[in-house]
Amino acid sequence: MADGELTAFQPDIWQCWHETLGSVDRPTWDWEGLGYPYWRIYWNHHPGASVSFNGADYALDPEFVVVVAPNTVVDHHLSGVVEHTYAHATLGYPYDGVVPHVRRIPVEDVPIHLWLFALRGGEDGGGETLDFSQTLAAQAFVLSVFSAFPGGVWPKPATDPAIHGLVREISRHPSRSFRTTDMAERCGMSVNTLLRRFREQIGRSPQQFVADCRLQRACVLLHRTSRSIEQIAEGCGFCDRYHFSKVFKRRYRCGPAAFRHQPFAPRLFRGTP
User: pTM for this one?
Assistant: First the structure.
């Protein structure tokens, strides 16, 4: 990397919302085994909610921003009525592949005023669509949360330029066809060499990585859009909805429709493009 060159990544902050837990609209927050392939960022105005992971409890107190890494399966707990705010985001390869964990960041280490500005609806009023100023504020806040992580948390990208380029293409365009022979040809190596180098640097086979990217994209679309199961299956590179549903259920222990309509499915959010 040249001096001063920034590390490339793909931040997508696509869910910003606030709600009252323990209210008529959200009467409970006590769920077990919730895991999603994207980042969950929580900050609450008052104590009373918490998440637990690997036997440890993480209180959602006003003094901390709580971050749940992708594919971290946590239990949610609620006591009383709590004003709850959250954001959902993905960072792309390789940063969404962190080790599953939960992290609490002191609120004084992040610009919480930007988060409050975004959630308040900005100076011109509210609505479900953030205007450009609010969107910038939300992005600045969320990225500041990630910048508070220690550097050693983040996975390193592939060092082999051919593998790195292939992985970036798969993660950006998972709906494309990625036959192993075509990927080997693209990288200028034999199939056996591709399989060996890919597993050495990524930790799984090329086809496993393709499947992971497609399923991550499908989860986001299920929670972010109202597209049909057929449209999502096609848009994520699956041959049909039946194959998509089979693969999805094998990974998440429920079908796409059940995943979309589960009790804790996030509200749809439309940010400024």
Answer: 0.85
